[in-house]
Amino acid sequence: MRSPSIPPISSRSLVSRLSSISPPNSTPGSKKEDAIRNQYEFFVQRMGGPPLYSQRKGHPALIGRHRPFPVTHLAAERWLQHMQQALDSTPEIDPDSKTKMMNFFRHTAFFLVAGDQLKYQSQQAPTCKHVHSK
Question: Where does the secretion signal sit in this chain (predicted)?
Answer without folding.
Answer: none
